[in-house]
Amino acid sequence: MIASKFCSADWIKNIIKEDENAPFMENGNDFINDEKIEEILAKGRNPQKKKVREIIQKSLDIERLEPDETAALLNVQDLDLWQEIFQAAGEVKTRVYDNRIVTFAPLYLSNFCVNSCLYCAFRKENTKEVRRRLTLDEARKETEALVSLGHKRLIVVYGEHPLSDIDYIVDTIRTIYEIKIKPVRNNPAPAVRGDAVGGGISNGLKARASSNQIRRVNLNAAPMDIERLRLLKKAGIGTYQIFQETYHHSTYRKVHPAGIKANYTWRLYALHRAQEVGIDDVAIGVLFGLYDWRFEVMGLLYHAIDLEKYFGVGPHTISFPRLEPAANTPFIQQTKYRVCDEDFKKLIAVIRLSVPYTGMILTARESPEIRRGAIPLGITQTDASTRIGIGAYSDRYTEQEAEKQQFLLGDTRSLDEVIREFASNGYITSFCTAGYRCGRTGKCIMDLLKQGKERWFCKLNAVLTFKEYLLDFADKKTQRVGEEVIKEEIKQIESNLPEVLPRFRQYLKRIENGKRDLYF
Ligand code: SAM
Ligand code: SF4
């Protein structure tokens, strides 16, 4: 009812402003040339071992690859050579990002949508979907629930609809940033509302001490015009993430038969427009399973190159979700391009080598087993304790209630379980958002990453934020393995950054004494 009342044709008509794409297009063409990509992929067939090893070495030297080089890697057949690619991908990740994994949680605010994406349960034709838009009070409760689990970063997600237009997005982002949960140190059962989150999500954990809050709100929402983007920038968003879904023009038309999203170039240049207003951390992605995965990896690379061309910096992160089953969404069973687990590993490794300094996000769409196998190939960020229903963190409902979700999740473990597993494998979970708050964003952070410098800032801040988590949210087992990781990190800081050690130790002490949010 609400949906049809507000979904006026005029609103839809006025969203797209083609002239805002014009500065980035060449003779009316966008930067994805389907024939050229097919041609480069065909030319790259049966690459010589020697050539592949030279390409791998270029990535190990932390240089972005050219399209023909990425095409050669995508064409490798030799299984031993793939093992070398996998190993190099892990090595590149360590050189640029060390053993850090950043965690976040998605927060779905509204699932009203005017679009018709064949693969998504939120599409307007899906009348079985229960539609809901959170009130600001409900958004507050969701945020409290997430903060009380230990999260510091969210990605907020919205359908495209007049009910979730820019004013609502800005209001919800402001509401999220406002939530602060006061420290209740050494109190095993705090009086924070978010502690009472429903069915299984708290996993028996108690948030003890927390001058905690969400420190960075990233956004996944439909492409916007310049006017709306300016308001977003003012609201203080972190990264703006938009997936092209598929770079293949005719497939794009097929899977987006109607609605605003049917316009390929409006979406393709959304992040160019965002960069233009100064939103300098932008994130791209493909929904793997709509078209040939090798073509899509090439599309991601061309997207990164075009952003570099205009703004001197490529995407902050790349995501590579695979199509997941969604309620009442038969398209998913029909597509012939589903990506198998082995190819999934290959595409992750090739992306890692193609853009060595770009963050890579693996989501809880994937099962714990797949995540275990994929993380060593170069992943830098992942979500945990994820729920993708509207109101799902504070409502009581079973984990996979299909009609309230966009699709079904593969990993529903708690944040603490995920962090414990990372720590057992020598990874440190970072909740650091300092870089952004010190202006280390966009080109600046990419330059530091390319020079291998950000790694050290990040190590210090990762330890400080991990310490906060262990003190405030971790259960005993996680605290034990976590402290072992911290000991190792301190050894490395001692030998590599002796000049900052006194200040670092002083910060750790202050955190133990209840201070929060200290960073370098
Ligand atoms: N409505 C906005 C848009 O389409 O850009 C943002 C929200 S949409 C809910 C976020 C992403 O979910 C989409 O970009 C798409 O890649 C992903 N998605 C949709 N259906 C999916 C499915 N069945 N399996 C996995 N991911 C899916
Ligand atoms: Fe709407 Fe986004 Fe889902 Fe498409 S993917 S139906 S635009 S929510």
- Radius of gyration computed on alpha carbons: 22 Å
What is the count of β-strands? 9
Alpha plus pi helix count: 22
| CATH-level-2 architecture | Alpha-Beta Barrel
Pairing-aware structural class of the strands and helices?
alpha/beta
Number of domains: 1
Give the termini separation: 51 Å
Arithmetic mean of pLDDT? 89
The description of the largest β-sheet is:
8 strands, parallel, barrel
CATH superfamily membership, which one? Aldolase class I
Helix fraction by DSSP (H/I, runs of at least 4): 40-55%
Indicate the CATH topology.
TIM Barrel
Rough shape? Answer: globular
- In spatial order, strands of the major sheet run 1-2-3-4-5-6-7-8
Unreliable parts: 1-5, 185-210
Architecture blueprint of SSEs:
Blueprint lengths: L1 H5 L2 H5 L20 H10 L5 H12 L6 H8 L4 H19 L2 E11 L25 H12 L5 E6 L7 H13 L37 E5 L5 H9 L5 E2 L7 H7 L8 H5 L1 H7 L5 E4 L7 H19 L5 E3 L11 H4 L6 H14 L4 E4 L5 H7 L6 E3 L31 H10 L3 E3 L3 H4 L4 H9 L3 H19 L3 H21 L4 H12 L8
Helix pairs in contact: 3-5, 4-6, 5-13, 5-15, 6-15, 7-8, 13-15, 17-21, 20-21, 20-22
The site of iron/sulfur cluster (SF4) has 9 residues, from loops.
